[in-house]
């Protein structure tokens, strides 16, 4: 088996390394135009590549973001572009890359790494756990009518091409990280995931403005013909890519707008919050069908003590967790969690769990009692599960809302 080394790519090696991952993800290598954006969006100082001699065979990269956690936020690494050449898989390349990246993340003072997984079987072994789920919803517009009691708090306007580039950025920043799991979006994110996509795929942007004239929500969407030779009159589907609203009125206004677009028979909303009430605003809730529920944000706590210190807790008697972490053993040990915060302790543990399961608990997406019920938490004191449920609960289910 060939040897490989993990290191930062030299400047001239970055594009070949990135193209290796593009190939692993079954995409063509980057064009000059794509690379001009990608080279800034995925910074050199946050890239690791694996080389056989001078030939790249795998890569991972991350962007610096803030991650919203219950009651606060933490600096985090948003990991992307993980891949290994198809003829060099299953020989430990990604294990070496991700272990290096996780250690760097911890040393850099980022207590969490986050990602969206191509497959749900890859990342658990590296200590990542599913922290939020999403639903994909298809609305049958031919049967969907808004209930009369859905509030009207403003109006919606379509943006010009120039506004479509700038206004969503300002709005997203102004709305803030209002749910655990949300992340900040840097300039590189907007150039790669928004501007480039508007140009390439002809997305449109609509903005909701309240009665006081304040913009408070936006949706990025595009029409897609459903017509075929057999069914030429199938109409259009509206594919919703990005939808954020600062309040329920703005959300309802954006739904109202999408439902009003002529010639449309289907509205496809991808990766929406589990608790989003798109069905409940309709006279016939079954006109909004959940097509899939999926894992979305995977979190890896690289510095458990710092991560614990960065969030707030609900009201309950304290609980002591014994955390196992073979890959980053500095995290292993017992932590006492109380409404006042978290601290290392020598006290006996109430609950034992691996660090990937801790990630499921951390943002409040999965109750400790559920995780114990499926064997992911070992409870020495079953009463402690009720306390942990209350301590780790989040006011809203976590949702990332940003693809990266
Ligand atoms: C955040 C993102 O970018 S998600 C995108 C991830 N990339 C892709 O899906 C692109 C296509 N796939 C690939 O490039 C590679 O197969 C990768 C990155 C998934 C895995 O890379 P490899 O170098 O083969 O992984 P490596 O050899 O280190 O395997 C480590 C372990 O994970 C297991 N593993 C690796 N890939 C998978 C998989 N897809 N499903 C299940 N298990 C896997 C291996 O069997 C091995 O298990 P072991 O520790 O019990 O022996």
UniProtKB/TrEMBL annotation:
Residue ranges occupied by any N-acetyltransferase domain in the UniProt entry: 4-149
Chain segments carrying region Disordered: 1-22
UniProt xrefs under SUPFAM superfamilies: Acyl-CoA N-acyltransferases (Nat) (SSF55729), SCP-like (SSF55718)
Active site positions: 123, 404
HAMAP family (UniProt xref): Eis
Family per similarity comment: Belongs to the acetyltransferase Eis family.
Protein's name in the database: Acetyltransferase
Provenance organism: Amycolatopsis magusensis
């Amino acid at each position: 088996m060939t040897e490989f080394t993990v290191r930062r790519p030299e400047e001239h090696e970055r594009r070949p390394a990135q193209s290796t991952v593009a190939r692993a993800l079954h995409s063509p290598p980057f064009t000059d135009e794509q690379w001009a954006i990608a080279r800034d969006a995925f910074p050199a100082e946050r890239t690791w590549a694996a080389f056989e001699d001078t030939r790249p065979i795998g890569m991972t990269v991350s962007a610096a973001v803030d991650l919203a956690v219950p009651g606060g936020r933490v600096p985090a690494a948003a990991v992307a572009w993980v891949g290994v050449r198809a003829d060099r898989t299953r020989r430990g390349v990604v294990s070496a890359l991700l272990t290096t990246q996780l250690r760097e993340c911890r040393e850099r003072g980022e207590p969490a790494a986050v990602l969206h997984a191509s497959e749900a079987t890859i990342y658990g072994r590296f200590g990542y756990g599913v922290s939020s789920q999403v639903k994909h919803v298809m609305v049958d517009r031919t049967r969907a009518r808004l209930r009369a009691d859905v509030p009207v708090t403003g109006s919606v306007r379509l943006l010009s091409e120039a506004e479509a580039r700038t206004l969503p950025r300002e709005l997203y920043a102004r709305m803030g990280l209002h749910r655990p799991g949300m992340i900040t979006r840097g300039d590189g994110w907007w150039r790669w995931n928004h501007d480039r996509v508007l140009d390439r795929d002809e997305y449109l942007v609509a903005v909701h403005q309240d009665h006081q004239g304040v913009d408070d929500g936006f949706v990025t969407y595009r029409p897609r013909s459903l017509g075929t030779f057999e069914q030429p009159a199938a109409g259009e589907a509206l594919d919703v890519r990005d939808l954020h609203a600062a309040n329920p009125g703005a959300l309802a206004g954006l739904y109202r707008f999408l439902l009003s677009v002529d010639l449309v028979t289907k509205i496809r909303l991808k990766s929406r919050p589990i608790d989003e009430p798109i069905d409940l605003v309709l006279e016939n809730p079954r006109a909004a069908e959940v097509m899939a529920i999926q894992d979305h944000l995977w979190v890896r706590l690289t510095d458990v003590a710092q991560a614990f210190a960065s969030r707030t807790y609900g009201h309950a008697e304290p609980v002591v967790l014994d955390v196992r972490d073979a890959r980053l053993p500095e995290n292993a040990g017992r932590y006492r969690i109380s409404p006042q915060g978290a601290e290392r302790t020598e006290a006996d543990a109430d609950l034992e769990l691996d660090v990937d399961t801790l990630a499921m608990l951390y943002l409040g997406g999965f109750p400790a009692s559920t995780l114990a019920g499926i064997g992911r938490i070992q409870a020495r004191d079953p009463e402690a599960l009720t306390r942990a449920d209350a301590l780790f609960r989040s006011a809203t289910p976590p949702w990332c809302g940003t693809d990266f």
